Amino acid sequence: MASDVLVLGAGIVGIGLALNLQDKGRSVTLVDRVGPGEETSFGNAGLIQCEAVLPYTFPDDPVTLIQAALNLRIDSHYQFSSLATVAPWLYQYWQQSAPEKVAISAAARAPLFALCLAEHDKLAAAAGATAQLRRGGWIKIARKEKNLAAEIKRSNELREHGVNSEVLDHRQLAAAEPHLKGDLIGGVHWKDPYSLAEPLALSRAYAELFIRRGGRFVTADARTLEQGPEGWSVAGPEGRIAARDCVIAMGPWANDITEPLGYTMPLGVKRGYHMHYRPEGNAMLNLPVLDGDTGFLIAPMTHGIRLTTGAEFAERDAPRNYSQLDRAEPIARALFPLGGRVDAEPWMGRRPCTPDMVPVMGPAPRHKGLWFSFAHAHHGLTLAGSAGRFMAEMIVGETPFCDPAPYRADRF
Q1: For residues 9 and 384, is the Cβ–Cβ distance under 8 A?
Q2: 247-274 pLDDT, tens digit each
Q3: Positive/negative CA dihedral, 89, 91, 93, 96
Q4: Are 203 and 11 within 8 A, CB to CB?
Q5: Do 252 and 316 contact (CB within 8 A), yes or no?
Q6: What is d(CA 145, CA 353) in angstroms, rounded to the nearest whole number?
């Protein structure tokens, strides 16, 4: 079984890349141990966030830092048993959160986020999935003046990137989301982003388009990757699957492949959880809503109202810890009339992050025909189209639409 390119990882990032490679005439084999979109791409907020140019940064407020150190927050949590592993990465994350370094990261992220909506429009139209891209954006709400002021400041900064937003007072917020409760003073409506009713459905629609175009999806173990005289191959169920080029798009599992090849990169994992709830009575949520004071998000989804947590800092495969979700649930119930839980147990996902919050994309420095595309942080869904286009342009030898230097693997 031979093709032009092996793409290891069938999350939304890998699928987006595979489709862009097909657009450029390349035959592609997509490899994963589970079905397309069934790992990290399955969950979380389901937002395509063109406004997320500025990276999430390490907090600098002393009160926030103390609360985080004592594990009292909903938007962040760490597992003490994993601290020896995650602390060095957190230290690098803190270093990269200095204002001058944030500006560098934002400049690197800007070209990808500028095209994220248009590239999804293109893929969704080809896949017959345009209806899944729900217009209207999302709202960040506030109960405290300082938090609302900070979000307004951010909205002003992002206007230079062409991002549209509207500040809502408490009356306007009540008109937009009449079933929200509590002492809300207002919020910021980010108007341009898309939201999804079911992220897995979009991944599957894109994967089905890939198959209709002649692409092959194979269930296999990417850790069997080998380099040979003609390129790269992995062991499939019916023999080795070979290609001239190979792309590692395995998200938080990328280092299972890169480290044995001699590439050591600071790949951290921010874990997150979600649960679905039935709304009580006739309660409706029109748009995803992020509680800016406590750090959880509720979103209208196919299976109910999805409640998502912030970031958990732990080893990738550490035992699950539902404390963030347990803390968020009573506050979410006070915000919106949630009924009973829908899911048998909470979902957990792993978001791969570099300390500078810039993805690793481009050629492997020491291996011909090997490429990296991972560490898209909280924004794998958002960047699936634009990152896929960028990588496809590089792999086929075209000049990519933006400078590849900020994403190179040897920048650390």
Answers
A1: no
A2: 999 999 999 999 999 999 999 999 999 9
A3: negative
A4: yes
A5: yes
A6: 31
pLDDT tens per residue, range 186-243: 999 999 999 999 999 999 999 999 999 999 999 999 999 999 998 999 999 989 999 9
* H or E element, residue 333: helix 323-335
Parallel, antiparallel, or unpaired: how do β-strands 304-308 and 347-353 relate?
unpaired
Phi, psi of 90 (to 5 degrees): -60, -35
pLDDT for the residue numbered 1: 65
- What tokens appear for 146 in the block? 């300082």
Cβ(394)–Cβ(5) below 8 Å: no
Burial of 282 (C-beta count, 10 Å sphere; 0-12/13-18/19+):
exposed
Using a 10 angstrom Cβ sphere, with 0-12 exposed, 13-18 middle and 19 or more buried, the burial of residue 196 is buried
Helices (H), 97-239: 99-114, 116-127, 145-158, 170-176, 199-212
pLDDT at 332: 98
User: Which of 384, 385, 390, 392 is CA-nearest to residue 24?
Assistant: 392
Q: What is the pLDDT of residue 230?
A: 87
Helix (H, G, I), strand (E, B) or coil at 403: coil
Interstrand relation of 239-248 and 2-8 (parallel, antiparallel or unpaired) = parallel
**Pairing of the two strands 268-279 and 347-353:** antiparallel
| pLDDT value of residue 293 | 93
Classified as helix, coil or strand, 123 is helix
Residues of the chain falling short of pLDDT 50: none
Please check whether residue 261 is in contact with residue 364, taking contact to mean a CB–CB distance below 8 angstroms: yes
Q: Which amino acid is at 255?
A: N
Contact, 72 vs 65, CB < 8 A? no
* Residues 272 and 76 sit within 8 Å (Cβ to Cβ): no
Q: For residue 161, what pLDDT is reported?
A: 84
Q: What are phi and psi of 369, to 5 degrees?
A: 80, 5
Taking the alpha carbons of 193, 64, 82, 322 in that order, is the dihedral positive or negative? Answer: negative
The secondary element (H helix, E strand) that includes residue 269 is strand 268-279
